[in-house]
């Protein structure tokens, strides 16, 4: 295979320091690569949040959520096409609170504010009519799709430990959803199992051993329904924040060959209401702290060797819709 390397050093010297200039020899060993980046490394998320999602005295989502988004909006379609190739992940915080209206599921409720609900909302629903619309949009724009599955379906919240969900995952609703998807000829590149359920979790969590057993069930389901290996979607997980002990336990239980890609999330700027947000973004030493997370994930990957390595399947700098008057500005690019 032939690779073309272009090395473009740019050196800016102040006129006052020219007298101190020295000749330097730079040697580049281009015979071997130290890392490989997938062609579809650019990824954007279509999230489930309804317009009522508000944080820090702002309600930024408007009609941008999956169920409300105008899929015929020309500027959006053209922007996605311009990224070609692009991966779109359909998922996010509320994905573990979404049922699919297919098979035995007959009612299809909308997300409603609910004080004791997951992230403050009641259960929501994806109708197959909306799924059809989404796939027409995805096919038209030519993207690769990663779909985030509900990994809490059939579980119950523990009565003794807040936020812990217990019991086996029930795959029937996912089975019906996949069968419908296959019958329509819709292409799914990968399924991600749950959202931020690993470790301490965000809103909800699942024990590592339980998650490991359930992801085996998912992998077997994918193998059963997608008979041809060349068209078989990949299985990704856990789609949460890095916690070494939890990840090691999960991968020891699931074993090799189950999870194709190890996914994790990066929000290294913390909550969006931090008054010190601007200083964090402009402080290289602070930003470099995240390298410890990458090293930890890399160590886990080297130990268990999932086929596709590690993916950052969600990243946004600041948590909870970003930081008002910062995340949407030029300075946010530095993180």
From TrEMBL:
<dbReference type="InterPro" id="IPR017853">
    <property type="entry name" value="GH"/>
</dbReference>
<dbReference type="GO" id="GO:0009505">
    <property type="term" value="C:plant-type cell wall"/>
</dbReference>
<comment type="similarity">
    <text>Belongs to the glycosyl hydrolase 79 family.</text>
</comment>
<protein>
    <submittedName>
        <fullName>Glucuronidase 1</fullName>
    </submittedName>
</protein>
<dbReference type="GO" id="GO:0004566">
    <property type="term" value="F:beta-glucuronidase activity"/>
</dbReference>
<dbReference type="InterPro" id="IPR005199">
    <property type="entry name" value="Glyco_hydro_79"/>
</dbReference>
<keyword id="KW-0732">Signal</keyword>
<dbReference type="GO" id="GO:0016020">
    <property type="term" value="C:membrane"/>
</dbReference>
<feature type="signal peptide">
    <location>
        <begin position="1"/>
        <end position="21"/>
    </location>
</feature>
<dbReference type="Pfam" id="PF03662">
    <property type="entry name" value="Glyco_hydro_79n"/>
</dbReference>
């Amino acid at each position: 295979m032939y690779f073309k390397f272009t090395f473009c050093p740019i050196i800016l010297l102040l006129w006052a320091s020219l007298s101190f200039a020295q000749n330097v020899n730079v040697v580049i060993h281009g015979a071997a690569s130290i890392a490989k980046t997938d062609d579809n490394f650019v990824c954007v998320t279509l999230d489930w949040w309804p317009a009522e999602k508000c944080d820090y005295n702002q309600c930024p989502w408007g009609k941008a959520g999956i169920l409300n988004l105008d899929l015929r909006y020309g500027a959006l379609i053209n922007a996605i096409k311009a990224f070609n190739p692009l991966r779109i992940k359909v998922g996010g915080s509320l994905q573990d609170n979404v049922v699919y209206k297919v098979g035995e599921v007959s009612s299809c409720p909308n997300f409603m504010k609910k004080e004791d609900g997951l992230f403050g909302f009641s259960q929501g629903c994806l109708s197959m009519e909306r799924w059809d619309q989404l796939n027409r949009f995805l096919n038209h724009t030519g993207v690769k799709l990663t779909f985030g599955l509900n990994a809490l379906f059939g579980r119950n919240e523990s009565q003794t430990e807040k936020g812990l969900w217990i019991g086996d995952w029930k795959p029937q609703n996912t089975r019906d959803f996949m069968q419908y998807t296959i019958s329509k000829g819709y292409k799914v590149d990968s399924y991600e199992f749950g959202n931020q359920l690993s470790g301490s979790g965000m809103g909800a969590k699942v024990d590592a051993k339980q998650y490991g057993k359930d992801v085996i069930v998912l992998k077997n389901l994918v193998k059963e329904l997608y008979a041809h290996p060349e068209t078989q979607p990949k299985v990704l997980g856990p789609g949460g924040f890095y916690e070494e002990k939890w990840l090691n336990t999960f991968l020891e239980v699931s074993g090799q060959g189950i999870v194709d890609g190890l996914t994790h999330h990066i929000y290294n700027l913390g909550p969006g209401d931090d008054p010190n947000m601007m200083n964090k973004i402009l402080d290289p030493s602070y930003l470099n702290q995240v390298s410890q997370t990458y090293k930890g994930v890399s160590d886990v990957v080297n130990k268990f060797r999932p086929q596709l390595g590690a993916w950052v399947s969600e990243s946004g700098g600041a948590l909870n819709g970003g930081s008002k008057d910062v995340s949407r500005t030029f300075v946010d690019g530095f993180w």
